[in-house]
Design brief:
two-stranded antiparallel ribbon, binds magnesium ion, single chain, alpha+beta, globular, binds cytidine-5'-monophosphate, 60s Ribosomal Protein L30, Chain: A, five-stranded mixed beta sheet
Length: 160
Amino acid sequence: MSEYRTGQGWDTHRLEAGRALVLGGVRIPSDFGLAGHSDADVLAHAITDALLGAAALGDIGMHFPDTDPRWKDADSLVFLRHALALVREAGYEVVHVDSTVILERPKLKDFRQAIREKLAETLGLEVSSVSVKFKTAERLGPVGEGRSAEAQAVATIRKR
Ligand code: C5P
Ligand code: MG
């Protein structure tokens, strides 16, 4: 009998002028981006934590400390691939990922398909099994004031 488990992930990063805006491994044209030790891909980080959470394998900072020079400006898809490998080693396969990016601007909907495709390719999933949603924060709080971005994710895994 197959055993399903779910994991949840959340992340936030500050916005900074002149930094690249990378979401789900896709570079979004913007005059500001996300600040962080790695490429600060807030969506990839939330999904990485959702995968780790589903298999109860700790969190992203445990596997990739932000004090480690190896992860300076790192492509966060490396973290996602590593989490996927750990989930597989634990005897599970990923079934589905749902996610939300909360960012006031720029508009992201034109990049939805590219982000889904990149994440699906990285996770070995069909595009139909990768959901990416976008929300503003209605000008409220740090996200709404354009000072930060957040991402949330839920991952479903199944015992192999
Ligand atoms: O936050 P709100 O409900 O106003 O978002 C309306 C729509 O705008 C969402 O359905 C989403 O697809 C899109 N959106 C976007 N880029 C953002 C925020 C929202 O494309 N940064
Ligand atoms: Mg992060």
